[in-house]
Amino acid sequence: MPAIGSDRLVDLHNDLTHYDTMIAKELREFLRGQPVNPARLQVDAELEETLRSFKAETAAEVECRRDMLRYKRRVDDVATELLRMISETLPARRASPGDPPQSYKSH
After folding, report:
1. Which one of 25, 70, 78, 107 is at 20 to 30 Å from 32 when CA atoms are compared?
2. pTM, entire model
3. Read out DSSP for the chain?
4. pLDDT in tens for each of the 107 residues of the chain?
């Protein structure tokens, strides 16, 4: 991120980084065959709205906000695709009646 004096823009960047990291962790767990919490994969509409409503004061801030929105949409695409993959694999991963839930099985 370019050196920008706006604390609010830095906060938005930190929020975007947290969102990206959370989605990446869930994707890693899915790829490892571990249970994934679909609630954590919800698209962060509040972050999108906050980025859209940010009042940029300089050309650099406008460009930075635009880049963050573009990046957030890419993270949203990953979250949406992961949710789709989870929904497709759920029937194959369902346990038999009487089996403990997936999160309790030893690995």
Report:
1. 70
2. 0.76
3. ------HHHHHHHHHHHHHHHHHHHHHHHHHTT----GGGGS--HHHHHHHHH----SHHHHHHHHHHHHHHHHHHHHHHHHHHHHHHHHHHHPPPTTSPPGGGS--
4. 455 568 889 999 999 999 999 999 999 999 999 999 888 899 999 999 999 999 998 898 999 999 999 999 999 999 999 999 998 876 654 444 555 555 444 44
